[in-house]
Design brief:
Blueprint: H1 3-12, E1 21-24, E2 31-39, H2 43-47, E3 51-53, E4 68-75, E5 82-91, E6 102-109, H3 111-123, E7 127-128, H4 133-140, H5 146-157, H6 161-172, H7 174-198, H8 205-228, H9 230-238, E8 240-246, H10 252-260, E9 278-284, E10 287-293, H11 303-317, E11 321-326, H12 333-343, E12 348-352, H13 360-370, E13 377-378, H14 387-400, H15 414-435, H16 440-458, H17 464-472
Parallel strand pairs: 1-7, 8-10, 8-11, 11-12, 12-13
Antiparallel strand pairs: 1-2, 2-6, 3-4, 4-5, 5-6, 9-10
Length: about 475
């Protein structure tokens, strides 16, 4: 952390941020073990009177070295009764998650025991932690920047391996380091501009212009790479929407069940069985996928089915990938073609379902004649043929969304993208101003604008309101 960053953080600290706060740090509900976390100066002194170590050789809690544990009992100071036997872990400032003195009690996960311990600690003078307060304190104390702090949510909510690995890279500071590198380069360019402004008699403008042009081009490329990768990164946190659509009884529900490996959708021979969208989350090669089964698209007088068809059309417009299922016989192919052309979806893939039926070959040939430039996929839920190809198509679609290097960290947060969009716009305007012969002070102002956007991204310069808004999205105990 640089000195300016720490100064900004210190100015945001309030008296409330220095109080001892407490919360259950593990998920709500009954469990084998739970963790209760206290953070704040004096946390060890606060818990010491009610903690009785099993071994009499252990010193008082406030004398325990950091990173040490002690097995002991929590005793009610009012009744003298045992509340629970716990493992107490002490972390000394600044070597803790929050940067403050931290005590963690690993207790039994009974709802009653957790509440009794929280009530006891509150009665000793602590206060209940607010949502995200532990991570907020880590940010305010300079342990994490704002990118890393927000990555905590991504890591907690990650449902696939790719999502978790990217969140871990963000939390580790991979993106933060790249932003620091870009900021350092911008500061160097700004220093060169200010040198020209302050000492015009030296006439270094040609040299500075060349350096600035090359530097701005490089910075634009770096920022743009992360902006372009947001389409992939968004999917890691929000999921990729893959829709199974087609006429009634085309095999959509059967395919959803096969891909999800569960009987989620009702399957019958009656056309129009599915009258609403059915969504299930699945993991395809680490990509979180929202697989959606839809009502069959056809003209109908049934009121409920009409609503289902209307919802299907809405879902199709927001999908990342659509498989349009076409099943034998070939009689309805013209209707399928008309509907597909009306939808005008870029991400639509024709998929011949029920490929195990005898009529499928004729259907495939007819489809190829209708769409000679389109790759036609086939599948059979009965034999399993084509299911891997469908999964592969999902992976290819995801990978086509961004040109990121395989091991590069992805941008996942819309706030981060907005900041980088702003930084990128300022860099491009500065480059245009340079080539257009605009005065140096205007160019310097544009470079500062890019630096301001990056400072907002990392939290170097951010309002209290934004900080409060970000951390209010966290759970209590995080």
């Amino acid at each position: 952390m640089n000195g300016d960053y720490q100064t900004v953080l210190d100015t945001n600290l309030t008296s409330q941020d220095h109080e001892i706060c407490v919360a259950v740090a593990t998920p709500p509900g009954q469990s084998g073990i739970a963790v209760i976390r206290l953070s704040g100066k004096g946390a060890a002194e606060l818990i010491d009177p009610v903690f009785k170590p099993v071994s009499k050789r252990f010193p008082p809690v406030f004398s325990m070295p950091g990173y040490t544990c002690a097995v002991g009992k929590i005793i009610s100071p009012v009744t003298g009764e045992l509340i629970d036997q716990v493992v107490l872990t002490r972390f000394t400032a600044p070597h803790s998650y929050t940067g403050e003195e931290v005590i963690e009690l690993s207790c039994h996960g009974s709802l009653a025991i957790k509440q009794s311990l929280i009530d006891l600690i509150l009665s000793l003078g602590a206060r209940a932690a607010e949502p995200g307060e532990f991570t907020k304190r880590a940010f305010l104390n300079g342990k994490l920047d704002l990118i890393q702090a927000e990555a905590v949510i991504d890591l907690i909510q990650a449902e696939t391996d790719r999502s978790a690995r990217n969140a871990a890279a963000l939390l580790q500071g991979d993106l933060s380091q790249q932003m620091m590198f870009i900021s350092d380069n911008l500061y160097q360019l700004l220093a060169s501009i200010e040198l020209v402004l302050e000492y015009p008699e030296h006439d270094e403008s040609d040299t500075v212009s060349a350096q600035l042009a090359a530097g701005l081009d490089l910075i634009e490329q770096k920022i743009n790479r992360y902006v372009q990768g947001f389409s992939q990164g968004r999917i890691l946190t929000e999921g990729m929407t893959v829709v199974l659509a087609g006429r009634p009884n085309a095999g959509k529900s059967s395919l959803l069940n096969a891909l999800a490996n569960t009987e989620r959708a009702i399957v019958t021979d009656v056309p129009g069985t599915t009258r609403d969208t059915i969504e299930i989350k699945i993991d395809i090669d680490g990509i979180p996928v929202h697989l959606v089964d839809t009502a069959g698209v056809r003209e109908t007088e049934d009121t409920v089915e009409k609503l289902g068809v209307a919802r299907t059309r809405d879902v199709l417009q927001s999908a990342d990938l659509v498989f349009w299922l076409i099943a034998p016989p070939v009689d309805h192919l013209q209707e399928d073609q008309t509907i597909m052309e009306q939808l005008q979806l870029q991400s639509l893939v024709p998929l011949v379902s029920k490929d195990d039926l005898n009529e499928s070959l004729a259907l495939r040939q007819a489809i190829e004649a209708c769409w000679p430039d389109q790759t036609i996929m086939t599948c059979s839920v009965l034999t399993g043929e084509g299911l891997d190809a469908i999964r592969k198509k999902v992976i290819e679609t995801y990978e086509s969304l961004g040109a990121q290097a395989q091991n590069d960290v992805l941008l996942t947060n819309s706030r981060h993208k907005a900041c980088l969009d702003s930084a990128l716009l300022s860099v491009r305007k500065a480059r245009e101003a340079l080539h257009g012969g605009i005065t140096w002070d205007i160019i310097a102002s544009l470079v500062r604008g890019s630096l301001d956007a990056l400072a907002e991204l990392t939290g170097d310069a951010v309002s209290d309101t934004l900080v409060d808004t970000i951390f209010s999205r966290f759970c209590v105990g995080k």
